[in-house]
Structures are given as structure tokens and as C-alpha cells.
Specification:
Helix 3 crosses helix 6 and helix 3 packs across helix 7. The longest helix has 32 residues. The protein is an all-alpha fold and 199 residues long. The radius of gyration is 17 Å and the shape is globular. The model has no long low-confidence stretch (mean pLDDT 83). It has nine helices and no strands.
Length: 199
Amino acid sequence: MTSDVLLAFLLFAFVSSITPGPNNLMMLSSGLRFGFRASLPHLLGVSLGHAFLVFCVAQGLSQAFEHLPWLQWVLKALGGAYLLYLAWKIAISPPPDAGGEARDTPLGFLGAALFQWVNPKGWMMALGAVAAYLPHHNSVLGTLGFASVFAVVNLPCVAVWVLFGTRLRQWLSDPLRLRLFNGAMAAGLVLSLWPMLKG
């Protein structure tokens, strides 16, 4: 990969990682409800899980969609259903207790990593990165390095959303503001389905 291509790939990874999407909206909500430390497994699951998805796509998983088109439909249906479930959970989530702690538990590492397989934006990011920036006939080691670079860029981008959520905790201590915020986050998750439905 030439330096020009590498710079373009880094820019793609940064822009696609920092912009709103299901992962970032969930991380914002997690930072608000649970704080940064409790959200770390979720954060690591997002970045490492997505890197694994990129690796698998680069190793030829995307070709499976050409031979098994129904597989793409199944993933879309599962992803859409799960996003709607998450939106509902966020919309009805109770406020933190008097000590500022949420009454339920954050999404863990495995749940966040598995979510990448049904995350519409995650698939678009992985497919776009591999198609545009990864040389053909790349070695397994080269593909692993490619996915690792994506994870290194992605991790701080996602962490910014968690930190933003933690900073909102005091402002959203008002129950009405919290209900409105949760409703907006739930609506944002539902709206994030639009690109998938169009395709």
C-alpha cells in the first residue's frame, strides 16, 4: 500500500468511525448511563469486533453474498430487528439511581463484538474499506495488519462518543431531559436503518 493510499484509508477509517451510526449512538447512551469505565468492554467489543469483520470480509466473506444472496437478506433482517430492540431498550431505560448509577447493565464485550455482524453501517464500512483500499491477493498477515490499522483509528473515535455521554450526565439529571434524550437516541437508531432499507 503506497503512502497516498494509506493516507486515504486512514481518512476513510476516521470519518466512517467518528460519524453517527448505531455503534456511536449506543456508546453515547452507554457513557451517559454507565460511565466510561463500565463502558470499556462495550467499547473494546465494538473496535475489535469490527476489525474482525473487516478481516473476514477481506479474506473473501463478501464473495459469499454473490453466491448466497439470501444470506445478505438474513443479516439485514437480524440487524434491523436487533436495532429496533436496542432502540426500545434505550427509549424505556430508567434514570440512574440516587448514586448516579444505572439500574441495568451495559452491553459486554462479546455482545458488542457480535453486534458488528448485524450492524448495517459496520458492513458498509468494512466492504467499502476492503473494496477501495486493500490490494488484491493480499496475504493473511497483510489483511490482519489492514484490519488492525482500522481498529487503531476506530477505537479513539468511538471513545469520544462514550466521553461525550459521560459529560451529559449532569445536564440530563432532569427526568424530562433524560426522557427526551433517550427518545432522540432511540429515534436515531431507528433512522440508522434507512440506508439498509434503501439497499
